[in-house]
Specification:
One of its GO terms (molecular function) is maltose binding. InterPro entries: SBP. One of its GO terms (cellular component) is ATP-binding cassette (ABC) transporter complex, substrate-binding subunit-containing. The protein is of the alpha/beta class. 39% of the residues lie in helices and 17% in strands. It has two domains: 213 residues, 3-Layer(aba) Sandwich (D-Maltodextrin-Binding Protein, domain 2), CATH 3.40.190; 188 residues, D-Maltodextrin-Binding Protein, domain 2. Helix 17 packs antiparallel against helix 18.
Length: 420
Amino acid sequence: MKKWLWTLGISSLLAGVVLTGCNFADEEPSSEPTEGGNTDGEVVELTLTGWQSSPTEQRYFEETVATFEEQNPDIKVNINTIPDQYMDVLRTRLIGGEGPDVFFLDAFEAPGLIETGAVEPLDEYITDEFDLADFEQPLLEAFERNGVLYGLPKDTSTLALFYNIDMLEEAGFDGPPETWEELEEMAIALTNDDEYGFGVVTDLARLMFIAQSNGGQIATDNQATFADPRVVEALQPIVDMRNVDGSAVEPSEVGADWGGEMFGLERVAMVIEGNWTVPFLDENFEDVNYGVAEVPTINGNEGTMAYTVSYVMNRNSEHKEEAWRLIEFLTGKEGMELWTSSGLTLPTRASVSEKLDYADDPIYGPFIAGQSYATVWADDTNLPIVNNNFQNQFTSAFLGQRDLAEALKEAEEVANSEIQ
């Protein structure tokens, strides 16, 4: 979905971005959809703002927008890209009254920006023909606040288990683990002098579903609660895989920058990563014989993470009817099929996944399967603060520098102090 998920890591990009203290509701423009369309023969220009993506992803995006323009000759879409510090730049433009008509909004950032009043509610624009029920519901819910829908997810990525087929066969395994207990046992058997059974990415964006698998929550009532003994108990096995079993490592320990790279270098036999890893491996490590499976169950329950980005409308846009037509096309069945046919991102509509045969594909199928039960990388408005404070302390515990419970207790106290 986003190149930064594997080049920089989620946490490094999101660090320090806190959406508080801004209120865009003062101008109080009408939230009613404009009646009818543009009937005076003039071309309405819309600005659509997003972030940088790979050249291939950008090409598919531009081609999809061009198809919309062909079908809507009364609308010209000007694509604007913010290459760095996306939310900071976007927020500044919105405050200054120079915001785009339509823009990308990550589920991670959505609660904070929605609270400012900068985003137009979409419920009154959506018709039965749009088929809202076709979307995967957890992805829609990431852009709801108090029962109101503010964004429509344009695509998604989930996590699945990548496993090295040759390494598993050499160790006597005929397939990937189905439960977390099996993963731990296989990781020990797959570990030798310079290869490890399991690779771990130690940020909360990858671990949130595991942290909450025992019933604890990383945040409650918009306060950090990841020192909950149930969270500690859920995460302790991962720490023990490195410090007790010696079967797990994080990327920097094997000379890699991220999970997909340490797997491609064949320094680990298994890693939980996103679908963005597929084109990376195919382009850079074509000789690696790998398979993909759903994440092993924990306590008998399925789980994974989902990351999603929506198209949203600027509440102060002067061309709301045209802006909705653009969002309607881009997240409609035709537009979504065009956009996600590259395989770099996955559809958020079940019908599009079925039409593109992703669900039955041996590589992409596990990612699609996870959409229905995934934990979406989103929470209340303080998730950026919660995330930042979790990251460093959990990593120190994983590397054996601190006791996990003590590390998370300190991180939680600091997080809540910053929140207050």
